[in-house]
Design goal:
This protein has about 280 residues and is α/β, with parallel strands linked by helices. It contains nine helices and five strands, in the order E-H-E-H-E-H-H-H-E-H-H-E-H-H. It has a five-stranded parallel sheet with strand order 1-5-2-3-4, with helices on both faces. The protein starts with 11 loop residues before the first strand and ends with a helix.
Length: about 280
């Protein structure tokens, strides 16, 4: 992502997938994306046909290539019923996400079509009993807390940015960034703890001292190395500046929702990111 008034891109990448309800994309294909094996514009042929010999397959991955938060996009008017192929596929994907300790969030779209009151006044979205029931259904179906589920409205017929639509979209985007940042912090803390244990083990094997430096010096070096990166002034750089998020769509949306209005929605997110910097 690149702010409008800056030549330097933000270290935030948003990866989008085709809708998985109307395609043959398998959970195996999506797992390759979680682990950072699929390069930009990788051709998702579906059917689990991706191998390490596929064009654009990245075998040598690092933390910069992996996904740090998953946003599952669901249509509020068509939540997958339990024991259906789509519901099972999402649960399989969620198991892989949970196994990697990657945060997962849900974006509920088309709330204006699910509730006539929201269609009339978007400000009713958090007071609508219908939307509350949809949030509860998603929470129960996929074992997710309700505060991980963000209802919003897509741009469809609007030709200019709409304040209320933008607030909902940017609020959800901010929460996704927070989740990615928290996940990175937990991961770095775990790595620091593992390295501290290695230093202590080495100290015990050598009779209480590590050759070349004191144990306290070793531990200080280890615990300080994995903290947030610092800029040239020494101030910490927020972890979200190097987050990757993947948007997993469950539906293939109409052209009116993914055309110029969708592009405008993307510009709104970029503008907000530049302000938050």
């Amino acid at each position: 992502m690149q702010p409008q008034r800056s030549k330097e891109p933000l270290n935030i990448r948003i990866c989008d997938t085709p809708g998985i309800s109307e395609t043959n994309i398998s959970s195996t294909d999506l797992v390759y994306m979680l682990d950072g094996h699929l390069s930009d514009r990788f051709s998702l042929t579906g059917g689990g046909l991706i191998t390490n010999r596929s064009p654009g397959f990245n075998s040598d991955t690092s933390i910069r290539d992996e996904m740090h938060c998953i946003a599952l996009v669901l249509d509020s008017t068509r939540i997958p019923p339990k024991n259906t192929p789509l519901h099972s596929k999402i649960l399989e994907l969620k198991e892989q996400i949970d196994a990697r300790d990657i945060p997962i969030r849900v974006i509920l779209t088309k709330t204006d079509l699910a509730c006539k009151h929201v269609e009339s006044h978007l400000s009713y979205i958090y007071r609508s009993c219908t939307i509350t029931d949809v949030v509860e259904l998603v929470s129960t179906s996929f074992s997710l807390p309700r505060n991980y589920i963000y209802p919003l409205k897509c741009y469809e017929h609007e030709i200019k940015p709409v304040h209320n639509i933008g607030i909902l979209a940017l609020s959800a985007f901010r929460q996704i960034l927070y989740a990615a940042e928290s996940g990175l912090e937990d991961r770095e803390s775990l790595q620091s703890a593992e390295q501290v244990n290695k230093v202590r083990s080495a100290s015990n094997l050598s009779g209480g001292s590590v050759p070349g430096s004191s144990l306290s010096g070793q531990l200080a070096h280890v615990t300080g190395r994995n903290r947030s990166a610092s800029d040239n002034t020494g101030s910490p750089t927020p972890l979200y500046r190097r987050c990757n998020s993947v948007i997993v769509q469950t539906q293939v949306y109409q052209h009116s929702e993914t055309g110029s209005a969708g592009h405008r929605h993307s510009l709104d997110l970029q503008r907000s990111s530049s302000v938050n910097q």
